[in-house]
Amino acid sequence: MPLTAPTAAMLIIGDEVLSGRTKDKNLGYIADYLAALGIDLKEARVVGDTEEAIVQAVNALRERYTYVFTTGGIGPTHDDITAECVAKAFGVPINHHPEAVATLKAYFEQMGREPNEARMRMARVPDGATLIDNPVSKAPGFRMANVFVMAGVPKIMQAMLDVIAPQLARGIPVISRTLTFLGGEGDAAKPLKQIQDRHPSVTIGSYPFEGAGGFGTNLVLRSRDELALDKAFADVRTMAEELTAAGTARGWTIPEK
Length: 257
What we know:
Elements: E1 7-13, H1 15-18, H2 27-36, E2 40-47, H3 51-64, E3 67-71, H4 82-90, E4 94-96, H5 98-111, H6 117-120, E5 124-126, E6 130-132, E7 141-144, E8 147-150, H7 154-164, E9 175-182, H8 185-198, E10 203-211, E11 214-223, H9 226-245, E12 251-253
Parallel strand pairs: 1-2, 1-3, 3-8
Antiparallel strand pairs: 4-5, 6-7, 7-8, 9-11, 9-12, 10-11
Helix pairs in contact: 3-4, 8-9
């Protein structure tokens, strides 16, 4: 099986996210979820509730990546314009979907709420789109080609993602190893670069921190090739041992999983 993977982008939509009023809780969840499926999240963008920005982002991302996941902007209010913008991006009309209309009417009747014009806006999807079931509050998301349009509310988005998952092509999940180097990041930089050059199929990242004993950095290695990962990690471990023996570092540890 080739060591490749489908790619993805996330488009977060909403003025409330850009203003700081709403703190996005979906990006990290989606990144973890896709990683477990062997799908590489390559890009994330945040745009406001403006037609031009949403249309441009949807068109750019859907051409570049295997999948695009959007969150936000599919509610009942005037600023919920994601569905209209996706329709414009694909050059198709938008209409009330009969199945969505029936589902929402039944739900509102059960809740004792009027299926007014605002609420029924949530049944509008671009022509040619397929619905994404919403087990939480019934208002559906939709899929248009490789673009998956989901709610911004985390609980609802997560339920929709579970519905979407069986439709997605999968790759080999990335494996990671971590070594905590108790020394300055600059002291490890040169030998770490040499290790990276020797192991091109492994990605090595350095994430510095300051602890009670001084500066340190978490060295995180990632790859789909477990054998290559083990070899690169062995080199990083040897580097940490040598720098510690030379007095350049205070030591190193391998964090428990």
